[in-house]
Amino acid sequence: MNQRTFVLQDDLQRQRLKQWLDRQDLPLQVDAGPVHEPRTNAQNDRLWKLHRAAAAFTGDTPEDLHEDRLCAFYGFTEKRMPSGYVKRIPLRRSSTRDKKEFRVFMDFVESFYASELGVWLGQEAA
To answer: By residue range, what is the domain housing residue 75?
Structure first.
């Protein structure tokens, strides 16, 4: 039997899955958990648009600002490079967050840029 994934949204679907499970040969492996909805492309596009707006103000690269905000939000480890430079490495990446987790991270980034840099999306250039 091939691996199957079931997304249950109501009690009827749960009942049908129970019936199907009762007909399967043992041993059988079953993994269950909440539905994981990965962050959307639109969410990611908005984050990078914000990073670019902040980068235009600070002179940093959007990539450097992204790494900085990841480290500030998720924490980081330090790695000493061969040159002696100490690099911060975020403990988590935004690309692996689900929609809800990504929204919380995005709110953190937007709040920081607005309160600390005076940068937010929708601003008109002066």
So the answer is: 41-117
